[in-house]
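Reopening: K(+)/H(+) antiporter NhaP still failing for me.
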Amino acid sequence: MQATNLAIGILCVLGGGIAAQWVAWRFQLPAIVLLFALGLFYGPGVGMLHPAATIGPYFHPLVSMAVAFIVFEGGLALNLRQWRESGEGVLRLTAAALPVNWVLASIAAHYVGHLNWGTAWLFGAIVVVTGPTVVLPLLRHTKLQPRVAAFLRWEAIVNDPIAAILATLVLEYLLIRPSHMGGISLEAVEIGPQLLFATMVAIGCGVFAALLIKFLSSRDLLPEILRIPMILAFAVGVAAVCNLVMQGAGLMAATVFGMALANLQVSGMSELQRIKESLGVIVVSCLFVLLTADLQRTLLNQLSLPIMALTLTVMFVVRPLGIFLSTIGASMSWQERLFVGWIAPRGIVAAAVAGVVGLQLQEAGYPGADLITPAVFALIASTMILHGFSLRPLARALRLTLSDEPALAIMGANAWSTNLARVVHEVGVPVLLVDTYAPALDKAARFGVPVLKAELLSVEGQESLEERPADYLIAATPDAIYNGLVCARMAPDLGRQRVFQVSPGLARLDLYHGLSRDSRGKVLGEPGWNFSLIDSRYAKGWRFSSHIIEESDNEDESPLPSDPVMLFMIIRKGTAIWVFSAEDVTPIEPAAGDIIITYVPPEEAAAPDAPQVAAPIPA
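Support: Ran it again with your exact input. Result attached.
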């Protein structure tokens, strides 16, 4: 019976969590909100799951290790180049804003939440953190400008372990009893040195583990099959070791380890990036469901008017005021300060720390200690819902987002790809023409087409593309092998159904003898449309053309062109770009208002060498 219950629990947590992630992706909803609601349904709602009671004393240590993996994943995204670009703002949000928010939140907890000063200081220490478990998924679903995204990412990841250590120190101080001489006990005096020692140990362990991985990799002493398992084991291991020194220090060690790996240029990190993102989705999904399901109905009954007033005060007064005060004189625009001052969702670290320290303080007999956990979870739920649903609209209103139009990147600047980029650009769709040879981009630049001189297989190229992110990619160079390399590199980021390359030839499309599907993109058009065919037709006068499907088009006939016209793509403004491929599973069904991009022979092409003017797009 117990095994059956365990199997049902795993199915509910893992299956339900991934299902919630898919629904969030499909309908553009904040995944964290769905996971939180799912946990409430499983736990306090129907009483199906009681993780702490089922797992027992191992529940919180397992949660701690899972959170260490999450902050390690976040540390891998902390590139020092971003620090140089937005370093002052990041420094203000981590070094200045944290103590200011702590003081303001503690004052609010005492005067608004009616908590005594000791409990109020502990509450303030817990809620200064903005969780990477919430911030990072929100950033994946919103095209924020790189500078603003860096603010939120660095603040969440760096402040996470600091806030956990701060809460631990406050708890230790509150649990200290006065000495028999009537003064402060020796333990209170040792808190400062203990914090310094724990910080040094955490940084040392994280950096040493990263240097060891680099040493083994550079000397071929780390087999590929063990590279990723060893890195993941080190991430959890350094966290466990440092937690023995001080609770919370493990999160700092895992963050430092990830950050060091990201900046030491360790080989093989691209594979780790793909695996850790997939594992991160699973870990975050399971953790949020488990922690929320572990809430008791009695805890929810403790939500009172003072707690709700405290929640609103922290969200609408404490956080904005703290950011305003700590960023005075910083090189941040008022839009950035307003946005960062509002967006501060709390996540798993705050929930886990509240559950542990609140219980310890309650067992010590502190009055009001039983209110810490409901107060923190009320703030977590409110920030996840309000900030999750308001992040994208607020960013758009403040003009801190990149274009929401589906964007196309074309790798390889030649005569026909330049013509394609120009036509797509003229119909109002974001397009970026990329090449490693600057003169090849000059013609497109003269027509106003955005261009990028970079190697997409390089770190610089990847970082440059992040500033103007693409949703679809067409590799259009004469080298089929290079096209395949670019598509294989970009597929994990864009999706394998969104990277295309000029056909490498009929023989190479054979799934057994030809190029592996994992080593190339989807074929652009028909298998016979190789680079030579498209290029030779351009030399004969073929040109790309755009056509808008009108409501008045004959419904009895297909709006798609027939031979000899070559259909390249269908664009639905604000929704998607469908690049035609013989490997499509389902045929494309265009609708009124869609834009068709075709490759037409000379007799149908208008003014081949003159700039094309797109037809007006109906509202």
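Confidence is low (pLDDT under 50) at residues 177-186, 607-619. If you still see a failure, please send the error message rather than a screenshot.
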